[in-house]
Amino acid sequence: MAAPVEFWFDFYSPYGYLASLQIDEIAARHGRATVWRPFLLGPIFQRQGLAPLVEIPLLGDYARHDFARSARLIGAPFRLPSAFPKAGLAPARAFYWLAERDEAKARALARAVFRAVFVEDRDGADPAVVAELAAPLGIERDELLAAVARPEIKERVKAATAEAMARGVCGSPFFFVDGEPFWGNDRLWQVERWLETGGW
């Protein structure tokens, strides 16, 4: 089988949210699976000497406009969180912990967190909120809260972020298709063309 499409994202990335609504379907149209890989943008921004997009003069105003416009284009609900940006440590830790047990539930939780953050304006960085979102998936609240506090789970997110940086991931979302890197929700059409043609 062909290698899966890697989808790297930060839970507080608006474009990561929009990509999460599309990438599985795009990959499936071409007989590919996907691998979801949350990481933290903060350390990558620091390494590049960058501020979060919305905090950059001029570009920040444009980005706010483009987030909403990009969401309308695909018919997705969107609301920029009132507290933004934040570090999505808790959901990333919960994802990796849950993925070791049940990949489908981990993705379902990721989607629930994205919706909570970018549609419902809830605090997806709060472990208690993540635990609440996991409850409908049959995940015990106390078990999840204990898991996200474990050193090995914390290290898992650090390692994922370090791997992302080492592989040249410079923003969210970021995709690898057969090793070829693509950065940004606006590159999804290129991802699909690459899958169609095998590259150029």
Automatic annotation (TrEMBL):
This enzyme's EC code(s): 5.99.1.4
Keyword Ligase on entry: no
GO biological process, one term: glutathione metabolic process
Presence of keyword Isomerase: yes
Domain DSBA-like thioredoxin: 5-193
UniProt xrefs under Gene3D superfamilies: Glutaredoxin (3.40.30.10)
An annotated Gene Ontology molecular function: glutathione peroxidase activity
Key words, A-Z: Isomerase
Enzyme class, UniProt record, top EC level: isomerase
Catalysed reaction, written as an equation: 2-hydroxychromene-2-carboxylate = (3E)-4-(2-hydroxyphenyl)-2-oxobut-3-enoate
Pfam family, one: DSBA
Superkingdom of origin: Bacteria
PANTHER family reported for this sequence: GLUTATHIONE S-TRANSFERASE KAPPA, GLUTATHIONE S-TRANSFERASE KAPPA 1
Name of the protein in its database record: 2-hydroxychromene-2-carboxylate isomerase
Organism: Inmirania thermothiophila
